[in-house]
Amino acid sequence: HAAEIRDHALVGAAHQLLGRMDLASTRRSPEDYLDAYDNGTPLEDEPEPTPALRAARDHLEAARDRIKDPIRRAHALHSLSVALNDLGDIDESIAAVQEALTVIRPTTDPDECRRAAWHLGSLLAERDDWTAAAKAMREAVEAAELAFHARLDTTSRARQARRAGSLHRWAAYAIARAGDPVGAAVVLDAGRARE
What we know:
- 75% of the residues lie in helices and 0% in strands.
- It is mostly helical.
């Protein structure tokens, strides 16, 4: 019924949610990893692109084209980047997440910025573009730090630290590979303090 709905943002939001659901359905569950560990059998490489993954890309592209709100559009672009990466369209994936990060900044949406910048840094690291990867990872760390310090109570801070996971370690590695060992040590030390 998209043609009958006057507000294109509503149609875009529906596409965004459908795309995220399709994308989530292509992910392995934590139980898959536990079962593989318990059975002593490593998981196979990621499966070939599924219809759900292609549907996720199509929905997220439709969301990108219909959503006008910059923050929501940037969220759709980040999800689209993940789908494109899974489909092997690395150049398009990098372009989508870079566009998202022009809007999603550490100060506007720290949690999403952390995820998107980490994703970009990982993509660039896979290409051995360590300077660009380090820049993206620094942005992810900045966003994680802002999110951490924005929390007032210990429980919320602990939750934020868990969300950052091993970001500081990967960021330190990228920064060191980019030729800044002192910067890498500073980032690594901040991450160890959170852990």
